[in-house]
Design goal:
The protein has six helices and three strands; from the N terminus they run H-H-E-H-H-E-E-H-H. Strand 2 and strand 3 form a beta hairpin. The protein has a three-stranded antiparallel beta sheet. The chain starts with a helix and ends in a 14-residue tail after the last helix. The protein is globular and about 60 Å long. The longest helix has 28 residues. The protein is mainly α.
C-alpha cells in the first residue's frame, strides 16, 4: 500500500473520529447532557451496577470527577446510590437502564437503523476486514492508553462478531 493511500486512510480515520464527536455532542445536548456524560452512561448500560471506584478505574477519571458525574446522573434520576447489602461501607451506583434507554434511544434510533443498513451493504469479506480494522484499532488505543497510565485499563465487552 502506498504512503499516500495510508495517509489518506489516516485522515479519513481522524475525520470519522471528529465527526463522531460532533454527532454525539449534538445528540447529548438534545438529551440535556454533555457529550462526555452521555458516553459515560454507556458504561452503565454495558456494565450495569458498579462502585464509584470501579467506574473511576474503567474511565480513568479521578474519584472526585466520578463523584461529580454520579451527582449529575443522580440529579437527573438516571442512577441511584445504594448500600451494598453484604458490606454497608460499599456504595453501589445502580443505573436506571429503562430511563437511560428511554432518554437516548429516540435520539439514536434513526442513526442506528441507517448504520445497520450501511453495514449490511458490504460483503461478508468486507465486513470481516472492517471488523479486523476496528479490533486492531481498539487494541492499539488500549495499548496507548495503558502506556500513558502505566496500568491496564478495564476492557468493555463487545457484542461484535469475531473473525
Amino acid at each position: 500500500m502506498s504512503d499516500s493511500l495510508i495517509a489518506a486512510l489516516h485522515r479519513l480515520s481522524q475525520l470519522y473520529a471528529y465527526t463522531s464527536l460532533q454527532m454525539h455532542e449534538m445528540m447529548a445536548a438534545q438529551a440535556g447532557l454533555s457529550g462526555t456524560d452521555q458516553k459515560y452512561l454507556g458504561f452503565f448500560i454495558t456494565k450495569g451496577t458498579m462502585t464509584a471506584g470501579e467506574l473511576a478505574s474503567l474511565t480513568g477519571l479521578t474519584t472526585g470527577a466520578v463523584t461529580g458525574l454520579i451527582d449529575r446522573f443522580e440529579k437527573k434520576k438516571l442512577v441511584s446510590r445504594q448500600f451494598d447489602t453484604t458490606d454497608r461501607r460499599k456504595v453501589l451506583i445502580v443505573p436506571d437502564k429503562p430511563k437511560i434507554t428511554a432518554l437516548l434511544k429516540p435520539l439514536y434510533q434513526s442513526f442506528s437503523n441507517e448504520s445497520q443498513q450501511l453495514i449490511a451493504s458490504f460483503s461478508d469479506k468486507e465486513k470481516k476486514i472492517i471488523a479486523g480494522y476496528f479490533e486492531k484499532a481498539i487494541a492499539l488505543m488500549t495499548a496507548t492508553t495503558e502506556g500513558m497510565s502505566g496500568s491496564p485499563i478495564k476492557k468493555i465487552k463487545s457484542s461484535t462478531p469475531s473473525k
